[in-house]
Design goal:
Distance between the termini of chain A: 37 Å
Structural class of chain A: mainly beta
Largest sheet of chain B: 5 strands, mixed
Strand order of the largest sheet of chain B: 1-9-8-3-4
Strand content of chain B: over 45%
Strand content of chain A: over 45%
Helix content of chain B: under 10%
Distance between the termini of chain B: 38 Å
Radius of gyration of chain A: 13 Å
Number of helices of chain A: 0
Helix content of chain A: under 10%
Oligomer: heterodimer
Order of helices and strands of chain A: EEEEEEEEEEE
Radius of gyration of chain B: 14 Å
Order of helices and strands of chain B: EEEEEEEEE
Number of strands of chain B: 9
Shape of chain A: globular
Largest sheet of chain A: 7 strands, mixed
Shape of chain B: globular
Number of helices of chain B: 0
Chain lengths: 113, 113
């Protein structure tokens, strides 16, 4: 069983640029969630996708957007990057049910300069 | 989301049991209690979850108080690999369209050799 994978591992961008992060779900999972983790903090929920539609959103501005594809893989797009967007971005896949655990990828470390 | 309270840090010795407490006095009847941990430089990892009864799996045990206002994650024999941040999270079984995880700061567990 293949776990959740994310790419790239690390990324450096300049303020104002745009970035796309990618995630491949664990086999058989139909829901993908994205989290942002600043240094020393717990992960913060950005949004979740189910059946290719956004299915809940945290307190993040519209310049954070995403996609889920028919194979349940997903992208996180961030426009107009700000210095505070520097963080570890985590993707998690799961079955769409409240008792089911989420499986996290290793994350993408984004640095905005 | 119902909140949880955990100690900032705990310390244990290798091969000894560890009891990680979590208070959730405002838990509702439909909240599952989930535990995740995050090893250094990795994404969070599911540990265990329960609703009312104590639960055991290969990683740990979860003891839930009778009034469900607190719970304890038990690592029966700590190893160096168990050194991580442990998060106690409540998830509503009637989460509707949104099954996000709300992370706090968790408990940093240090395991001494």
């Amino acid at each position: 069983e293949t776990g959740v994978t994310q790419s790239p591992t690390h990324l450096i961008k300049t303020r104002g640029q745009q970035v796309t992060l990618r995630c491949s779900s664990q086999s058989g999972h139909n829901t993908v969630s994205w989290y942002q983790q600043a240094l020393g903090q717990g992960p913060q929920f950005i949004f979740q996708y189910y059946r290719e539609e956004e299915n809940g959103r945290g307190n993040f501005p519209p310049r954070f957007s995403g996609l889920q594809f028919p194979n349940y893989s997903s992208e996180l797009n961030v426009n107009a990057l700000e210095l505070d967007d520097s963080a570890l971005y985590l993707c998690a896949s799961s079955y769409r049910a409240p008792g089911y655990e989420q499986y996290f990828g290793p994350g993408t470390r984004l640095t905005v300069t | 989301d119902a909140k949880t309270t955990q100690p900032n840090s705990m310390e244990s010795n290798e091969e000894e049991p560890v009891h990680l407490p979590c208070n959730h006095s405002t838990i509702s009847g439909t909240d599952y209690i989930h535990w995740y941990r995050q090893l250094p430089s990795q994404g969070p990892e599911y540990v265990i979850h329960g609703l009312t009864s104590n639960v055991n799996n290969r990683m740990a045990s979860l003891a839930i108080a009778e009034d469900r206002k607190s719970s304890t994650l038990i690592l029966h024999r700590a190893t160096l690999r168990d050194a991580a941040v442990y998060y106690c999270i409540l998830r509503d079984v009637n989460g509707g369209s949104n099954y996000k995880l709300t992370f706090g700061k968790g408990t940093l567990l240090t395991v001494n050799p």
